[in-house]
Amino acid sequence: MSPEHALHTAAAAEGVEERLSSAERLGLLIYFVGAFAAMTRVTFATLLGDWFLGVATAAVPVAAVGVMWTTLYGVRRSDVESASRRTVTWAQLVLAHVALLSVFGFVNGNLPPDITRDAIPYAVIAMFAVLGHRASVWRFAENTALWATLAAVPVAIFGLDLSDIAGRGSVQSEAYRTQGVLGLWPLLLLALPGRPPGWRRLAMVGLPFFVLGEQVLFLKRAPTVRVALVIVLLLFVVPALARVHRRGNTLLIAGAITALLAVGIWGETFVTAATSLGDRFEGSSGISATLVDENSRITEALAWADSTGDIEWVVGRGMGSYFTHVDILNFVLSEVDAQATFARRNLHIGILEPIFRGGVLFWLLYFGGFIVALGRTGIAIQLARAGEENSRTLGGAMFLYVYVTFQLTEGAASTSWYFDLAVVGLALGRLLSSGTRSLR
User: Residue 118: which residues within 8 A CB-CB, separation 6 or more?
Assistant: First the structure.
């Protein structure tokens, strides 16, 4: 049998219908609803009262329990093909290491809420990776992505203060703190090979452009480039690699409508923001100075590295850890213990965060999974050419390339971006799974 014929046969075999059980649906629903509540805490506290802050805080661990329930229930089902051994092994090792680092953090006296907040992102990504090979989970996530993103748009608009050019992109602004609720948008583009009908297709293309426009209004450089790059890769590069011809009418119409809405709603403000964003890219002393000399992230990372001991480079400081340094005294600091000590709790260069928590050992384990997954991109391309449905796998690879690359300049996985964890985990698990199954 030729390799090409084998690929077609595998793709057809993988199209066998499998469904989520009621218990699994409930777990995923708890995750997505909990994550939505956690990321909209500021907006709904403003609308409903401060009592919602307590609900949102509780929703963070509850959402993690939801995906854990689905994962545990799924692996016990005998009628569903399990994830590949490489996926399960990687997830088990990550979860075990996270548990050890959590105990380490507790022994070191770190605050339990901080330990939980640091541990959950790694655990959620690992659990979604175990689910990433299942077509039914992808269908549920893609359907949820459409409705959750539609619901998130008015929340995002509600918090925008267009009169405050400098402040609307601040980490303290309501709009910026709730934008994580739009984080499922890549799933909308990944679902396009399923050829959704009518308004759904239009919305699934248009909503990512809304996310892009919001980054422009926030005057955010790296997020603007990242979102634009993912849109280009998923709409144009993936079909080209898969040798799939897609009609461009929907893309052009959705993009035009979104652009007209942006100008119509925000008018001159959007144009001014785009101009200001261009100035930010150039910086006061040129692009190179913006990337290095004027980059506070590098100052922060150097301060952390200078405060890190030899053994901490190997095993880290545990979950809930923090660091202090004279070079970050003018940064935003957090209260990290009962003695009212203020320190820095995280790094804004995400690729260093696993070293901060678990040393080089945890970094090799965690990012080793990404390296193995992305090493299967060639297989994903072949499968995409065997059937358009398989291009979701290739799209997931493109998304992960961008995600890992921008960990060099953006923050690590966080519950402030809870939906992102699901997208990363699903894409990772789909690539890691043997046969890289197609969605039907």
Answer: 105, 319, 320, 321, 357
Cα gap 95→332, rounded to integer Å: 30
Could you tell me the pTM of the whole model?
0.87
Per-residue pLDDT tens listing for the chain (440 residues):
333 333 333 433 344 468 899 999 999 999 999 999 999 988 888 889 899 999 999 999 999 999 999 999 998 888 888 888 999 999 999 999 999 999 999 999 888 999 999 999 999 999 999 999 999 999 999 999 999 999 998 888 776 765 555 555 455 566 677 788 999 999 999 988 766 777 788 888 888 988 888 888 777 888 889 999 999 899 888 888 877 666 555 566 666 666 666 655 555 566 677 677 776 666 544 444 444 444 678 888 888 998 899 999 999 999 999 888 766 655 655 655 555 466 778 888 999 999 999 999 999 999 999 999 999 988 888 888 887 567 888 999 999 999 999 998 888 888 888 999 999 999 999 999 856 444 33
- Measured CA to CA, the distance from residue 137 to residue 160 in angstroms comes to 33
* Separation CA 277–CA 218 (nearest Å): 9
